[in-house]
Amino acid sequence: MTHPPYLVALALVELNGSRRLPLMGKSKPNDAPDEDDPGALGRELTLDLLLRLWQRSDEGAVQRCAGDDSLLILELPLDILTEQLPVLKAQWISGGDTQVMLQDLRQLRQRGWRISTAKHEGTGYTPW
Taking all residues of the chain, what is their mean pLDDT, rounded to a whole number? Predict the structure, then answer.
């Protein structure tokens, strides 16, 4: 039996000078349409992740590590989520190259979106 893909929201950030890669993920429903954006589930994950980051800001300054690519939603198969993503996360947190991390994430994902916001436009999801 194949598992439905997971949507994972992640942030490449520094918190008080230390790298962090918080993530939130949920399985996509089997009947979820393939949309041009991550849909309601993606918006829920985005909000949850950003609220976690905001709460952690009590520990110190939060800074993006990859510019506009610092906040992403990726569609990943379960095996990649459980086996390969933790390895990449550990390598990057311990000082790995950010551009290599982004390249590796691009290769693992089935689909992906960059999360952004603009004044008077709200949250936007652009293919990544």
Answer: 91
